[in-house]
Structure formats: structure tokens, C-alpha cells
Design brief:
two-stranded antiparallel sheet; 12 strands; globular
Amino acid sequence: YIGANPLPGELVDRFNSNPDLNVDIKPGPGFQSIWINPWHDAMKVTDFDKPLDELKTEPGFMVRLALAKALDRDLFVQQGLFGNGLPAYGSINAAMGFYYDEGLAETSEQSFDPEGAKALMAEAGYPDGEGFPSLRLQTTPNGRRLGLVVANIYKQVLGIDVQVDPKEFSVGIEEFNKMDFDLRLGGSGGDYDPDDGLIDWMMTSSKFNGPLRDTAEMPFGFFSEAEVDSLSQQQSITADPDKRRDLVQQANQITSDKVCCGFLYHPVDILVHSTRVNIPEESRIPGLHDFDRITLS
């Protein structure tokens, strides 16, 4: 029985080829993104409360949107995760089931559109990436290879130079909290409630939203949008599931369209066990392991 710690994706095919093993893959909670510093001169957005059409006229937002549209998430999942992940367009993941918006990939402004991304960069003053500054993409040491996949996608699609900058987690998270980064690959380890994707990350007051920044120079962290703040608060105190889902999906759509970040992927939970191990369906919960109900044949 192999679970709990993330299983290296490159081993899945090897385990699948063994008739004595079962490989069980389920959507996992959480999301991973390319965070884009809105206080960087080339990607600057000082007011996300503006209507989307107005934001689209600003060079800094054009660049942000181009970075999001250029993300070939399917290619990333194949090259970076060996096929073991789900493309992401928001913070609400498939493991949340009822609250997950399956249509967001089609309706989001972040939908993969390489030609649209190139046109946005050109309109922002950087045709084929010419004149665009080199960016640092902060990762953890373990995430370096994933960062290289992202950097290569940006090079191929937009012609821009992205240098992967691995940092130990404690160092990297401090820089992230201070808003001392260009781009950062990271996100939530996950939970099964929408509060994880909205209250913890997407609000102006969220605990991960630049808490150590210089507030005189940066009035907010990586994102601030009044309607998202309101929707996030409302959903957290709404008992009716259908009403709550509507609020959650509205907030998720806005954070995607207004490029809170370049949403990249949702993880999957990979459980490998001997065919002699019997796991009831009600005990198969990603990240949780109920050995009381597991039996051996």
C-alpha cells in the first residue's frame, strides 16, 4: 500500500504494468498557479476593481492576460506531471465536486489561446517578446523541473525569457509574502471546501495575499477585487448549497477572468496497492486513509 506522500508521477506507468498492483487515481484538492506580481513595471495593475473591458486596455493587464493565455496546461500536465494532473482555470477544484465548474475552461479569459496571447503582448509593446524584460520564476527546489517546463512554454509561445529561480520553501514563501518576486509557481495544498480557494487566497485580506509587503508602496498584495471580496464572504455564511455554489462560481469566474494569477493545474491523488488489499469506496478519500475498513484477501 503506497499512499500519503505524493507518488512520483513517472512511476505510474511502471506500477500500471504490474498485474499484482492496482493504481487508483482520483482528483485531489488544491490548485497550483503562476503568481504574477502586479507591482512589477511590465505587469502592473494598480486597480482590479475596474471593468474587465477597461482593464484590457492597460498594458500591464494585457501582459498578465497574455501570460495566462499562453499557458498550455495540457502540455504542462503531460511534460511536467507525466499526465497526472488536471488543467486549472480557477482555485475551485474537481475534488470539491458539487462546487466545481466544469465549464470554466471554456468560458475563462485564461483559456489557452497562443495567438491571442501573442497579439496581447504585441499590443502591450512587446511584439514576439522583443523588449520584454527577463523574469524570475520562483520555485521550490523540487519544483525546478516544473518551472523549466513553464519557462519553455513561455519561450515557445511568447518569445520571452523566464529564468527558473529555485528557493528553499521557507525563503521562497517569505519573499512571496513580501511581494518580492516576478513570478512564483505555487499554491494550495488543498481542502475540500471552497473557503480554501476563496477565503484563504482570493480576498484582499487573505492570509497568503502579501501579508509582509510594504503597504505604503503596495496597497494590496497579488490581487484585490471588491466583488470577489463580497462574494467570498457571502458564500462562507450561506447554508443553502445551491445558492452557495452560485456565489462560489461567480467569484471563481472573476478571479480567473481578471487574472488573479495564471492558474496552472490541480493535483491528483495516486494510490497504489496490492490486488490483495480491499478498499471500500467510502474509504477512498484523497489525502485521508481509513485503515479501519481496509481488509486483505
